[in-house]
Design goal:
Blueprint (H helix, E strand, L loop, with lengths): L1 E7 L5 E8 L2 E8 L9 E7 L7 E8 L2 E6 L1 E5 L4 E6 L2
Parallel strand pairs: 1-8, 3-5
Antiparallel strand pairs: 1-4, 2-3, 5-6, 7-8
Length: 88
């Protein structure tokens, strides 16, 4: 299992799911609208994978402006890996 602890700089974020792109696992988040609360928002999301990816990415799409952030591995017990990612 892969867990990502994500930190965002604005509210209005929704989790859209994950997908494998080659050997990279991409967690997708989206914001749509004109105004977003200026608050730090934290979310934790999980993915069941058959093989651990070489890299984990958090993708944030704000009204079509897509930015990617590489997640950092913070825990690994062989069965579960926890990553943290931030757009701050």
């Amino acid at each position: 299992m892969i867990i990502v602890k994500a930190t965002f700089r604005m509210g209005g974020i929704t989790y859209e799911g994950y997908e494998m792109q080659g050997n990279t696992l991409v967690f997708k988040f989206k914001r749509i609208g004109d105004f977003f609360t200026q608050a730090i928002v934290k979310k934790e999301v999980k993915a069941e994978v058959d093989e651990f990816p070489a890299k984990v990415i958090m993708e944030v799409d704000t009204n079509g402006n897509v930015k990617r952030y590489e997640a950092e591995l913070i825990f690994d017990d062989g069965n579960e890996k926890i990553y943290k990612a931030s757009e701050l």
